[in-house]
Amino acid sequence: MLSTSAWTCHEVPLDQWDTLLKQFPQHTVFHTSAWLEAIRAVYGAKIILGCADLNGECMAIWPVLQSRKGFLKLLGSPLPGWSTAYMGPLFRAGVDPEQAIAALLDYDLFRKGSYFAAKTLNEAAPVDLSRHGFERVLDFDTHVLDLTQTAESLWDNLKGECRTRIRKARSLNLEIRHEQDGTFLDEYWAMSLETFANTHIKPTFTREFAGEMWKHLHEAGRIRALSCWQNGERIGVLMLPFDTHTMYYWGGASWARVRGVPAHNLLHWEAIELAQKLGLRRYDFISTLGGAGRFKRTFGPQTINVATHWERTSSRVVKALRDRYEQYLTLKQKLWTNQMLGDLGAGTLAPLMLLCEM
Fold it and tell me: Which of 5, 82, 188, 293 could join 237 in a cystine, given CB atoms 3.0 to 4.6 angstroms apart?
């Protein structure tokens, strides 16, 4: 264990969190109080905002959410199944991440968890949590567009088929509208059920979470929703959280009966133009398991290694429960081919969420 004698840790009040985040420019929208409050509202988790000080100055922060089920204490930054692309600790420039991590993990509020999951960012200050008893579960690549290019360069970088489909969408007089309130959410959820059913799985989020996410981020001015309309009917939707540097393709859906209409090509292009107008530097397609998919590749994104998912369990029993739940999820997704099996909100990587259903 690295020496942490010069470090002290304390909890940050939620109403001071976003001000503190400004000292960490690499933070994402998923670190903000609005996103954390959406998680708390849906999953009942306790928000713990840890800060590590070195000689009295805040040098690292780590938002963690705690859920207790029976005698089990679950810690997540985030927990799998919470529809949260990124989170984990953040560091000030010049700090030694290893010492900051050691100090934070020795903090009382972060200790004695039956299960601790974290998704650490890899670009600015990658960390190795294996030194602290964590297991590396999965590395995440994502696919991003550099919005510091001109709109003309971005257009030229599109694959020919993508440009053709955008032109076709415009020739069909498809209309893009900016949603101003949450009245679109029921229709978006119904579209999502159809979209996921097409690949024989259930949505990786719940209707409740989509609503709370929209509510809290819309109030904070950190989300846009774009809808595509044809002949007076909403046929497709994109949900687009953003922070000070990046817009994220968090979710999108459309009706099955209009899959041949190039609505999503036009929606994404409009979103890219919007992100540029907002002064953002990146458009992140958020790849869940590292694969861009044929559709996303037509926009010409770059692939970067963005995050690592780590897990730590307190005992072999808890680890066995996690492993058995992975098998359960696989079977459950197969059974969902012909019917929706509940609204659990468990994502593709949802180990241990069975414990959350106890």
Answer: 188
